[in-house]
Design brief:
Helices cover 51% and strands 5% of the residues. It is mainly α and 273 residues long.
């Protein structure tokens, strides 16, 4: 698949530029971190499948590579994809913020290494695979088209009729099957159960005050797609509504929304996004 050029000159920008795939929950984490800071920035969102060339141009050396979870690390196919991982922020002084966590730390606050590891290596990848499994299931072709919201004419010309092929590539890249998707759902359920236990152990305290803002932005961003929160994406991307998903997925989302953690995240999106 052909690569596209950069849409901007990183040497002449006068404000931060956030480079994303608009639907990505790691990009939502970066976007929300910048939104809450009040910083003026420009978001450049590429279509999935068309972002590799532009991003690799911005990650010119080892110090600019993402250290976060990225699609494809589940398989040997993904070893080079750290170079094309999003999000990435290009700063006016020529520096870069190389992944969601650097962006969160810069614009909001740092998380403990323990929670950052859990979010990045457990919750985030599981949600990513579950949602790709659902979107690419064929239940609703419009959901696949949603992955290309905001794509330029040039990007759509490059994609052509390769959307189906792209779905096969994604599933292979991340080793997504019906069986692995069920395991990922169970991983998310266990993660929420751990958080529920934390809140139950401090039932005499306000749950929102128990954890810092950076924690709530991280867990909400990374879980938003799994809970079908309508506010997901802010103004940058319109998330699918719950009723657009398969009946099986709707049932599972309802189950997750009924957990204490799920309820808190849905409320956090409604009140703070």
């Amino acid at each position: 698949m052909a690569d596209l050029p950069l849409r901007f000159d990183p040497l002449t920008i006068d404000k931060p530029h956030l480079i994303t795939l608009s639907f990505s929950h790691y990009c939502e984490l970066a976007r929300w971190s910048m939104d809450i800071s009040g910083i003026d920035y420009t978001e450049i969102a590429y279509a999935i499948g068309c972002h590799g060339g532009p991003i690799s141009q911005l990650r010119q050396n080892e110090s600019q590579l993402s250290t976060s979870s990225y699609p494809g690390e589940e398989t040997a196919q993904g070893t080079e994809r750290r170079k094309t991982a999003v999000p990435l922020v290009c700063m006016p002084d020529g520096s870069t913020l190389n992944d969601s966590w650097q962006i969160l730390n810069h614009y909001c606050a740092a998380l403990s290494d323990d929670w950052c590891e859990k979010f990045d290596r457990v919750l985030g990848p599981a949600v990513r695979r579950v949602l790709y499994h659902e979107l690419l299931s064929g239940h609703n072709p419009d959901l696949v088209d949603r992955l290309f919201d905001g794509a330029t004419e040039a990007e759509m010309a490059i994609m052509g009729n390769s959307k189906v092929q792209l779905g096969h590539v994604i599933k292979s890249l991340m080793a997504i099957t019906d069986e692995s998707s069920q395991r990922d759902r169970e991983t998310i359920e266990a993660f929420f159960a751990e958080c529920d236990a934390l809140f139950d152990a401090h039932s005499d305290q306000d749950a929102l005050a128990l954890m810092p803002t950076a924690w709530w932005i991280a867990i909400s961003s990374l879980s938003g797609l799994a809970l079908a929160t309508p506010e997901y994406g802010g103004k940058a991307w319109t998330a699918p509504l719950l009723e657009e998903h398969s009946a099986r997925h709707q049932s599972w989302v309802g189950k997750m929304r009924d957990t204490r953690t799920g309820q808190l995240i849905v409320d956090y999106y409604r009140n703070h996004r």
